[in-house]
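Request:
You are asked to prepare a plain-text protein record giving the amino acid sequence and the backbone structure tokens, at your earliest convenience.
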Amino acid sequence: MSSEQRPTVGYIGLGAMGAPMVANLCRAGYDLKVASRSRGPIEAAVALGATATEDLAALARSVSVLCICVPTSSDVDQVVSDLLPGLGAGTIVLDCSTIDPEVERELHERVAATGARYLDAPLSGGTIGAEAGTLTVMVGGDAAVLDEVRPVLGAVASTVVHVGGPGMGQVVKLCNNLIYAAQMVAVSEAAALAVASGADLERLVEVIEASSGNCVALQTRFPVPGVLEHSPATKGWAPGFATRWMLKDLDLALAWAATQQVATAFTAHAKDFHRAAVDNGSGGEDFSSVAKVVFRRSNLPTLEG
């Protein structure tokens, strides 16, 4: 597409990330066509000016940039299979999901065989970043193709980085999330130790934010209700990023690390807590709810929102 053309954009998957991204694309003035399993987000997108469709092959034929944001590798595989009859030269597919890097590489090849082009473009920033249009996008694939769609990504993200060839966006995303999950468990354990010791939690956060233990999990997700006004713990564990999806990403990271023969003891530790949180009914809550598991195992009072 030329720099003068404003592409027609298709978006498949209007979940916690996709719905606010679609809203930002509509506000940016893009001609947008959307498809999703859930009717509510579709109706909201239509109210903002988008057009709804259920035929994915027809959708692929009618747009020049096509974004996918669905939960799992099998979901992306099915969406791409449904799109294939409508794909051809001139279409760029962006997979904004977080999936298995090897599956992603296979999808690059399947899409390329139609004449269309493909980028893996997973996201970081959670629903807050999606709503604000300040996401980080880590992109795997052809850098020249990314240059063509940077204006589209600029409507939803403040940072867009080309990180390598096919599948490398997914590798970088899994590296990011295994760090974040480990941070969250460490912050939860520190919070439990502070509570058990009778420490002033607000002063604890103040000191650590100015010290070497500072991290995003501490700043945004301190897991004791009432300590941070904006923390999910204070808001009834409403998810910016649900525990079940962090668990999924940890499974992906561990599986990928095994193929690369990389030791991942901390990631396995983090997975244990996220698995327990999901098993205890916190799968739909923010992933900071792993603190409930830490507190329970520490014989501390149950955390409530």
Q: What stands out?
A: The mean pLDDT is 96. The beta strands are 9-12, 32-35, 51-52, 65-68, 92-95, 117-120, 123-124, 135-140, 157-164.
